[in-house]
UniProtKB/TrEMBL annotation:
Annotated protein name in UniProt: Aminopeptidase N
SUPFAM superfamilies in the record: Leukotriene A4 hydrolase N-terminal domain (SSF63737), Metalloproteases ('zincins'), catalytic domain (SSF55486)
Catalysed reactions listed for this entry: Release of an N-terminal amino acid, Xaa-|-Yaa- from a peptide, amide or arylamide. Xaa is preferably Ala, but may be most amino acids including Pro (slow action). When a terminal hydrophobic residue is followed by a prolyl residue, the two may be released as an intact Xaa-Pro dipeptide
GO MF assignments: alanyl aminopeptidase activity; metallopeptidase activity; zinc ion binding
Keywords: Aminopeptidase, Hydrolase, Metal-binding, Metalloprotease, Protease, Zinc
Function: Aminopeptidase N is involved in the degradation of intracellular peptides generated by protein breakdown during normal growth as well as in response to nutrient starvation.
Domain Peptidase M1 alanyl aminopeptidase Ig-like fold, residue spans: 449-556
Domain Aminopeptidase N-like N-terminal: 103-191
Gene: pepN
Ranges of residues in domain Peptidase M1 alanyl aminopeptidase C-terminal: 561-890
Length: 890
């Protein structure tokens, strides 16, 4: 018999807490091997509770209770009782003081939730429910308390940090010392943080718009002190941006970031003391790629922005997670757009959404951005809550317009400062401030699945009218079979032979005021609607969903000619890119059809008109180089798979490869010109322009490497050896590793050995070395991955290492992971079984590729399912893994 299934928590069961905690006084006494936590709570019955409670249930996990006293009286057996993960105290009065003393073992905490040790330091991770692993508490976000924290430790940990302001420090006898921190802002326990370690820091300062000085510090292990400047610059940009764009100022005298190497996610917004995965804070050109630099900028901003969207105004319960995450992702995305190129950032966000989020929304774990139930909340830090959540905020911002959206967010922050609220409260504030009716729009919060738009059109030459008929539908998802129509903003324009046409939409005024009347947003609210444009003098090509104005799948039967027109002429940069992707998909589909008939693609070639169109993109001097690079990058295997009904792993892989090779051959001269005109001696800069030129040059290199000529292979090897920055070095190494050409293979072995020799002491660089090998598309990669698991560079307890090796193989290497004999699936299951007890959050996340089993052919389905069943049969499954496995098999 298995243990009883863990219980499901429902949104509809929400009740206010019985007690409130006015103040929390913590005393955290760190010793080698154990830590004593004394916690004093000032409790008071919640006046808003339906009934006056006479008992108090606190959450706690993996705690050893040393003592418990109520208003100074030591409690005994009979005064309290233990539940599975709780402690209930009987006969509790109206108000009282509770002191608990518990003993914990951070050194053996491998889950990386609560207080744990990472390399040389102690640190915490409390979101979502990690605080209960530190002490007994009302561990829920609507219980907000004023925290005072005393940290005591050996002086070999000179830096002792917690939230808020440092109010006292001093000696604590025999080589020990203490620090007391006080956070004046009430906060839920999930925002608590503590750090003790031998850390170095860089310091800067920021003067807020109202003239207050804020000290900024970034703490790292001393070896990493040379990699903090980019994060500090990003932080200052983010602070200024939030003042300018949202009128939000920082509110404490100090803001701190600590970099930690063992971390389950990217970073955490603890009040005044953000804790970061080293991968999201450390950066320097020699060790970090352009993508890495951009990630640091984005994540630093994201966590900083949480100070308002998340901390000052927090969530009532975890079903409201998107209240802070969707909004904050939207904020950080707009910030990055303002720091770099807006269109490029949009393309990157949409790419992520359409591959990973759409796939999630079509699978067994599909949920609305405000889920209705969960077993383990850690499983709901998802692409849907974050990325689709951000898209929903983006639609609101666009529907309201800049001014009204700002009025709405001002009202939201004003009205709810210091409160724990719901997504409903957020939308209400926007509706109140703008006067817009958002009642139908709210369905985006409660209905899962990706809506599908089917668009047909009709041009009436005599009447000079053009009609667009748009039908919306949404596939059933686990919790909802029949969906009500969504409110969908569709940004659009009409292209004539000479460019954008003026728009005269029947029943509405032309818009010459805010634009030149060639662009507008159609609001689709019915299951089917027809929009009629007048005074249309030629049959237009519709440019639909400009800027990806809604997270939907749009179907319109574009001809190749239409797409080429859109790609070269649309006034919306996003649409031009989108047309390039549709063209790529058409070419890949043609190759797939050929492959599925013959299982061979020898002699596959592209039409002259397609090649010409891509050539014009390469030669278009008006385009941002980053856009050229993205337009020349074919849709990923993951995106093609998402679009397929049944994923044919080999057909997708080999067809995409064939189209790439055909493009490489047809455009070799242009790629050579681009590659050779790049000056590899220029000093590195992480500016948008420099990143753009580098990425186009590296796209050109990738194509040239498909031709297998000796010149390109030698150039690639030169770039590996002499590259003055990690972007170029990695780009070259990736090409060498993935090339079938014997000369490239020879170089790649030498380069991999050289790379490890050079960087073995830089953990984050070693991670890239693991990933490039795990991502190798050539045969036999799984044995290489298995061997790397035994390599001294690997550490099976470190999430970054796990993601770089196992994650990269299972998520980024379909042709090998989905190998027909099922060995990839068995390999992943082995890893998950091992991680299940050690680190349930990571184990559960690694499961994702197996959850998609229903999308594959019958043989693969059986193989994947067998591994899921094997995992399900394991004794002592964590809640995290149990939830994902059981929902996948349901
Ligand atoms: N709130 C964090 C963010 O999005 C993410 C987060 C949630 C997290 N749970 C975590 C980070 C656990 C680390 C570990 O910014
Ligand atoms: Zn966040």
């Amino acid at each position: 018999m298995n243990a009883p299934a863990p219980k499901t928590i429902y949104l509809k069961d929400y009740q206010v807490p019985d007690y409130l905690i006015d103040t929390t006084d913590l005393n955290v006494d760190i010793h080698d091997g154990y830590t004593l936590v004394s916690c004093m709570l000032a409790l008071r019955r919640n006046p808003a509770a339906k009934q006056a409670a006479t008992e108090l249930t606190l959450q706690g996990a993996d705690l050893e209770l040393v003592s418990l006293s109520l208003d100074g009286r030591l409690l005994e057996e009979g005064d309290y009782t233990f539940g599975e993960e709780s402690l209930t105290i009987f006969n509790t009065p109206e108000t009282f003081t509770l002191i608990t003393i518990t003993k914990i073992k951070p050194e053996s905490n491998t889950s990386l939730e609560g207080l744990y040790r990472s390399r040389t330091m102690y640190c915490t991770q409390c979101e979502a429910e990690g605080f209960r692993k530190i002490t007994y508490y009302l561990d829920r976000p609507d219980v907000m308390s004023e925290f005072t924290t005393k940290v005591i430790a050996d002086k070999k940990y000179p830096v002792l940090l917690s939230n808020g302001n440092l109010i006292e420090q001093g000696d604590a006898g025999e080589e020990r010392h203490y620090a007391i921190w006080h956070d004046p802002f009430k906060k839920p326990a999930y925002l608590f943080a503590l750090v003790a370690g031998d850390l170095a820091h860089i310091e800067d300062s920021f003067s807020t718009s109202s003239g207050r000085a804020v000290t900024l510090r970034i703490f790292v292990e001393p070896k990493d002190l040379d990699k903090c400047d980019h994060a500090m610059a990003s932080l200052k940009h983010a602070m200024r941006w939030d003042e300018e764009v949202y009128g939000r100022e920082y509110d404490l005298d100090i803001f701190m970031i600590v970099a930690v190497d063992d971390f389950n996610m990217g970073a955490m917004e603890n009040k005044g003391l953000n804790i970061f995965n080293t991968s999201c804070v450390l950066a320097k050109p020699e060790t970090t790629t352009d993508v890495g630099f951009q990630r640091v900028e984005g994540v630093v901003a994201h966590e900083y922005f949480h100070n308002w969207s998340g901390n000052r105004v927090t969530c009532r319960d975890w079903f409201q997670l998107s209240l802070k995450e969707g909004f904050t992702v939207y904020r950080d995305s707009e910030f990055s757009a303002d720091m770099g190129s807006r269109t490029v950032k949009r393309v990157e966000d949409v790419t992520l959404l359409r591959t990973l989020q759409f796939a999630e929304d079509a699978g067994p774990m599909a949920h609305p951005i405000r889920p209705e139930s969960y077993i383990e909340i850690s499983n709901f830090y998802t692409m849907t809550v974050y990325e689709k959540g951000a898209e929903v905020i983006r639609m609101l911002a666009n529907l309201l317009g800049k001014e009204n959206f700002r009025k709405g967010t001002d009202l939201y922050f004003d009205r709810h400062d210091g409160q724990a609220v719901t997504t409903e409260d957020f939308v209400t504030a926007l509706a109140d401030a703008s006067g817009r009716d958002l009642s139908q729009f709210k369905r985006w919060y409660s209905q899962a699945g990706t809506p599908r738009l089917d668009v047909t059109d009709y041009y009436d030459e005599d009447a000079q009218t053009y009609s667009l008929t748009i039908k919306q539908s949404c596939p059933p998802t686990p919790e909802c079979q029949n969906k009500l129509p969504f409110h969908i903003p569709i940004a659009m324009g009409l292209l004539g032979s000479a460019g954008d046409l003026p728009l005269y939409l029947q029943g509405s005024q032309p818009d010459f005021e805010t634009s030149d009347n060639t662009h507008r947003v159609l609001e689709l609210t019915d299951a089917e609607q027809t929009f009629v444009f007048e005074r249309v003098q030629e049959k237009p090509v519709p440019s639909l969903l400009r800027g990806f104005s809604a997270p939907v799948k749009l179907n319109y039967a574009y001809s190749t000619r239409d797409l080429i027109l859109l790609m070269s002429r649309d006034s919306d940069g996003f649409s031009r890119w989108e047309a390039s992707q549709q063209l790529g998909l058409q070419a890949i589909s043609a190759a797939m059809a050929a492959y599925q008939q013959e299982r061979s693609l020898d002699g596959f070639s592209l039409s002259a008109q397609l090649v010409d169109a891509y050539r014009r993109v390469l030669q278009d001097a008006s385009l941002d180089q980053a856009m050229v690079a993205y337009m020349l990058t074919l849709p990923s295997e993951a995106y093609i798979s998402e679009l397929a009904d049944v994923i044919d792993v080999e057909a997708i892989h080999y067809s995409r490869q064939a189209v790439r090779k055909a493009l490489a051959n047809a455009l070799a001269d242009d790629f050579t010109r681009i590659y050779q005109s790049y000056d590899h001696r220029q000093p590195y800069a992480a500016t948008a322009d420099a990143i753009a030129t580098r990425s186009l040059k590296n796209v050109a290199l990738a194509y040239l490497m498909l031709i297998h000529d000796e010149g390109s292979i030698r150039a690639c090897e030169q770039q590996y050896r002499h590259g003055n920055n990690m972007t170029d070095v990695m780009a070259a190494l990736t090409q060498l590793v993935n090339s079938e050409a014997p000369l490239a293979q020879e170089y790649s072995l030498a380069a991999l050995a050289d790379f490890f020799g050079r960087w073995q002491h830089e953990s984050l660089v070693v991670n890239q070395w693991l990933s490039v090998q795990a991502g190798c598309q050539l045969p036999d990669t799984l044995s290489r991955v298995r061997a790397l698991l035994q390599h001294s560079a690997y550490d099976g307890k470190n999430p970054n290492k796990i993601r770089s090796l196992i994650g990269a193989f299972c998520n980024g290497n379909a042709i090998n992971f989905h190998s027909g004999n099922g060995e990839g699936y068995a390999f992943l299951a082995d890893q998950i079984i091992q991680l299940n007890r050690q680190n349930p959050q990571i184990a559960s996340r690694l499961l994702t590729p197996l959850t998609k089993w229903k999308k594959y052919d019958h043989v693969r389905q059986q193989l994947m399912k067998a591994q899921l069943e094997r995992i399900r049969a394991e004794p002592e499954l964590s809640k995290d893994v149990f939830e994902v496995v059981s929902k996948s098999l349901a």
